[in-house]
Amino acid sequence: MDDTIDLVKSILSFSFFAFIVTALIGFILFCLANKTAVLRKYFRAVMPVYYMFLAFIFLCILLLLAFKGFRITIAESVAIIAWICVLSGAITAYRLSKKNNEKFGSFTARKYAFDIVICFIVYLLWVGRVI
């Protein structure tokens, strides 16, 4: 059982770093592009990988909670709240891309920056067990 928990924690650590790298790539692409059509193409290129790592993170959190008997600590609750915030931001960015809204580029660049910061903070909470 301990080996399985260690494996899930390793997958979670990798998923956090991969998610941060994916968000960083999205942030850089959105800072470099200036046309809305190009931004939508970049967004559609990055989002499948982005959602995949969001799913990995959520699955690993649920597995770790299941192994602990669903006893939620502050670190797990912060991770779940951060995951919900990141997912709601991704849904909002997708809606803005569909509506051809001018706010799409600036909102998505800010969303990627926020996702990088929030994911790094949650990772530090998980690894360091600050709380």
Folded structure, characterized:
This protein is mainly α. It has 4 helices and no strands. The chain has helices spanning 2-32, 36-67, 74-98, 104-128.
Number of distinct helices:
4
Taking all Cα atoms into account, the compactness measure Rg is 16 Å
User: Could you give the distance between the termini?
Assistant: 24 Å
- The fraction of residues assigned to DSSP E strands is under 5%
Number of E-type strands? 0
The helix fraction, in percent, is over 70%
Mean pLDDT: 85
Please state the structural category. Answer: mainly alpha
Question: What overall geometry do the principal axes of the alpha carbons give?
Answer: elongated
Order of helices and strands: HHHH
Low-confidence stretches: none
What about the largest sheet? none
Topology:
Blueprint: H1 2-32, H2 36-67, H3 74-98, H4 104-128
Helix pairs in contact: 1-2, 1-4, 2-3, 3-4
Name the descriptors.
mainly alpha, single chain, 131 residues, elongated
Brief description of this entry?
With about 130 residues, the protein is mainly α. The chain contains 4 helices and no strands.
